[in-house]
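Here is the promised in-class demo. Please do not try to memorize the tokens; focus on the logic of going from shape to residues.
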């Protein structure tokens, strides 16, 4: 089954006209308009390829009306050029104004369609496919609804790369002229696809351009800076040792993406390993999988703009920070549960607690409990797996102890169990107290 939604087929009753790797259909909205009013040319375009394709649309208006009068139709002078992303479906809206003295009648309009695709473009879509409205984003559904019921034409013009449609001009009813500016509306793109579909398409890009950037010496300083800034803005300035341990748990999540290249085992990486999933995603892009939050968010950024593939480090400190932090919360709770032998709650409990951490960071109100449980505790547990150059074993945890002692008088009674768990975790996982548990 072709997993890519056939949006064009759903709007054009299954019909389509092919122009290279693009499938197209043409309509006017409305189909009949009074003289002196404006209407729109709607050009649907569906990219069947795995490459970004340039679409050039040139509208041809009637040179004269039924009374042989010239210049009664006005449209933008430019030829819009749209870069259509792999698998994307959208529509170009070209406004056309009519003068109030245009003669009533039926008029043919044509749009010349130029398609520029790379020579190595492969095929993503078949000639048809399935479609349900649930495949569209909420914003796209609103646009889709406005296109339903239009009479789309797939009539090609002989000897030209063009589509033809008809507009009916009725009795005059003047109105103010519209702004004659073309518009492109995306109805569906890979950013709307499920995790496996997006991973299958961009997997090679991750390997060649993204994973090589995820080096500890680069990601750790960027995340450390962002962590210090965010917690201070949330009203809970961190000591360097505290921020370092949160940064370490986030760093190891990123290193797990390509565990073999970063010296981690696949078993340790678990659900945070991305590289092992790539081959399976390509083999069967219809099967569901769940990616770590940071990767699912990042892939959709790449799907909207491939330049994001070269800016992962900058994005980790900004738009990817909170999704990565949520992954770190989940992973840290697993670590703390294993070390302590305590059940920290079910999946829903952990999700709600993670939401409260994010809210505290975004809106202020960060406190001891949410800072330490589970992120700083998780950092304590994996501390020695993310040693920086020149750092010795247990160094950051040894620096944590005086910070913890300093905070202790201000820890509210309700968080006494978190404070106790912190000390016990340090004792069980480090050599500081001389009885490290292996």
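The designed amino acids, position by position:
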């Amino acid at each position: 089954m072709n997993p890519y939604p056939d949006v064009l087929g759903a709007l054009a009753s299954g019909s389509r006209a092919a122009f290279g790797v693009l499938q197209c259909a043409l309509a006017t909205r409305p189909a009949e308009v009074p003289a002196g009013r404006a209407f729109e040319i709607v050009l649907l375009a569906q990219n069947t390829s795995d490459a970004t394709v340039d679409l050039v649309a040139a509208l041809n208006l009637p040179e004269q009306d039924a009374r042989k009068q010239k210049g009664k139709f006005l449209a933008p002078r430019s030829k819009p050029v749209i870069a259509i992303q792999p698998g994307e479906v959208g529509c170009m809206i070209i406004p056309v104004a009519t003068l109030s003295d245009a003669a009533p009648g039926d008029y043919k309009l044509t749009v010349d369609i130029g398609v520029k695709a790379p020579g190595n473009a492969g095929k993503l879509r078949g000639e048809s496919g399935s479609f349900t409205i649930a495949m569209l984003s909420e914003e796209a559904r609103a646009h889709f609804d406005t296109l339903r019921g239009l009479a789309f034409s797939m009539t090609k013009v002989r000897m030209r790369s063009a589509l033809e449609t008809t507009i009916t001009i009725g009795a005059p009813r003047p109105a103010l002229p519209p702004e004659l500016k073309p518009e492109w509306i995306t109805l569906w793109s890979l950013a709307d696809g499920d995790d496996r579909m997006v991973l299958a398409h961009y997997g090679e890009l991750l390997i060649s351009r993204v994973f090589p950037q995820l080096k500890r010496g680069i990601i750790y300083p960027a995340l450390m800076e962002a962590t210090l800034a965010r917690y201070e803005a949330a009203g809970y300035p961190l000591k360097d040792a505290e921020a370092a341990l949160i940064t370490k748990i986030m760093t190891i999540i990123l290193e797990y993406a390509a565990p073999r290249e970063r010296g981690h085992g696949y078993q340790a990486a678990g659900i945070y390993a991305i590289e092992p999933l790539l081959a399976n995603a390509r083999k069967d892009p219809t099967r569901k999988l769940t990616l770590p939050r940071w990767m699912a968010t990042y892939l959709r950024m790449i799907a909207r703009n491939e330049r994001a593939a070269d800016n992962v480090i900058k994005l980790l400190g900004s738009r990817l920070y909170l999704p990565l932090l949520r992954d770190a919360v989940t992973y840290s709770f697993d670590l703390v549960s294993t070390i302590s032998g305590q059940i920290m709650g079910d999946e829903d409990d952990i999700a709600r607690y993670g939401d409260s951490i994010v809210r505290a960071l975004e809106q202020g109100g960060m406190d001891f409990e949410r800072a330490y449980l589970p992120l700083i505790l998780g950092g304590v547990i994996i501390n020695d797996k993310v040693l920086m150059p020149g750092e010795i074993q247990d160094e950051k945890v040894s620096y944590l102890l005086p910070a913890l002692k300093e905070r202790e008088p201000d820890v509210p009674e309700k968080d006494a169990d978190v404070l106790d768990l912190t000390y016990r975790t340090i004792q069980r996982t480090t050599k500081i107290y001389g009885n490290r548990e292996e």
